[in-house]
Amino acid sequence: MKALRTRHRIERVALELFDRDGYDNVSARQVAEAAGVTERTFFRHFATKLEPLMGNPDQRIEYFTDLLRQQPLHLDPLEAVLATIAHEEAEYPPTPEDLMRRRIVLATPSLLPEIQAFERAIERGFVEWLAERTGRSVDDFEIAVVASILVVTRRNVFEAWSSSGGSETLLSLSRRALATLDLHLDPATAGDAAGQEGDQGVGRDGDASDDGEG
Amino acid sequence: MKALRTRHRIERVALELFDRDGYDNVSARQVAEAAGVTERTFFRHFATKLEPLMGNPDQRIEYFTDLLRQQPLHLDPLEAVLATIAHEEAEYPPTPEDLMRRRIVLATPSLLPEIQAFERAIERGFVEWLAERTGRSVDDFEIAVVASILVVTRRNVFEAWSSSGGSETLLSLSRRALATLDLHLDPATAGDAAGQEGDQGVGRDGDASDDGEG
DNA sequence: ATCCTGTTTGTCAGTCACTGACAGATCGTC
DNA sequence: GACGATCTGTCAGTGACTGACAAACAGGAT
């Protein structure tokens, strides 16, 4: 009961200090003491110095994929992902705290590896979602390819959006992303993709078109 | 002169220990002492504990993008990347040491963030390459989208290949990846992609097809 | 108020990655 | 064999994190 309040206090103080002085210039001890607590206590509530900033990744991923599952099946996977982002951002605009978190992360290059690892976690969530949606296995190669593309495209749309400073909307960027690529993985006809056709070179032979096997 | 030999010795010992006992279970001090050297000396030759394992990322990226630049222009970007991988792997098969490095990395989940950050570095290299190839800006949104897709697809092909244990070839996987997606970014006609067409929803309106503006 | 029990916290000591400063060793060279 | 440059060891310190233990602090039952 009390632990929760302490946890929130530490988190709030941590964000403020990270934002003011830079994540790398603030030690866990400083955050702890500013929150009226010992360093040891800090690490009892947060496994890492990063956690007050990033929150629980699994939780966020589950939330997002839950939204994804509510998207109609006639959408391409990429359409579904982009629509979810745009809808979510419009429906529940980010709180000042959310914006602070984003600001801190963007201002801290040394955090890049962690962010990237977080993306991989998202990717796993997408793989499961795609597997459900298409009836394929989670080990399926095409599922893996598509899932990873969804993740990075999501990131690109997001990054372009936040760095455009409002001149672009999530919607317009989503359309441009969609126009740039064309995923061959409809939920219904879940293309079986190429097998092996024993000639040399990597290029497509005849034409990819729709090798339809419904 | 002597430093180079010391460096190589540390590197060799590091790989052996990492491989035998696991990266996380071997401290920099242990590596140093096994190499007949102080911990401080270890960190004089390598900036991080990771470096003996990963080498210089920038160097590897430059090497790969140099190969990319030699690919004929009529190839799709993805074709060029996949062809380069396949060709490289066939021409210069990995040494036992290369295999050891891969083994260690795969056996060490805590290294995931670093690997991911490395991928982002590759992505930056790809962006430059694509910008040259298409005559676009390195800040171009479509370039960013395509570059990130190239990177993750490269990874997917590679991972599927190493985990298939030889049942799949880089070539066959490359073909499957190519069939799965279809990039709209030819080096010549470098599609201008969609602008804004003011209706709601993220879905493509008419059809993406080839909005040719050559 | 008091006792009892479980939770929360502080203290202490330790590991590991990594760094700066300085002094001793070693190398190639004349 | 003296000499300047390079290489290395020693020492001390920071910052993230962990385990062990005991003191402080709940809240409810008596």
What string, H for helix and E for strand, traces the elements of chain A in order? HHHHHHHHHHE
- Low-pLDDT runs of 5+ residues of chain A are 184-201, 203-214
> Shape of chain A, please?
globular
Largest interface: A-B, 54 and 55 residues
**Helical content of chain A, roughly?**
55-70%
Instruction: Quote the distance from N terminus to C terminus of chain A.
Output: 56 Å
- What is the number of beta strands of chain A? 1
Q: What kind of oligomer do you see? A: homodimer
The fraction of residues in strands of chain A falls at under 5%
- Whole-angstrom Rg of chain A: 21 Å
Structural class of the helix and strand makeup of chain A?
Answer: mainly alpha
Question: Could you characterize what this model shows?
Answer:
The structure is a homodimer of 214-residue chains. Chain A has 214 residues and is mainly alpha-helical. Chain A has helices spanning 2-21, 28-34, 39-45, 51-54, 57-69, 77-91, 96-106, 112-134, 141-164, 170-180; one strand at 181-183. The longest helix of chain A has 24 residues, at 141-164. The termini of chain A are far apart. The model of chain A is unreliable at 184-201 and 203-214 (pLDDT under 50). At the A-B interface, helix 6, helix 8, helix 9, helix 10 and strand 1 of A face helix 6, helix 8, helix 9, helix 10 and strand 1 of B. Strand 1 (181-183) of chain A pairs antiparallel with strand 1 of chain B. Chain A binds a DNA duplex (30 and 30 nucleotides) through helix 1 and helix 3.
Please outline what is shown here.
The structure is a homodimer of 214-residue chains. Chain A has 214 residues and is mainly alpha-helical. Helix content of chain A is 63%, strand content 1%.
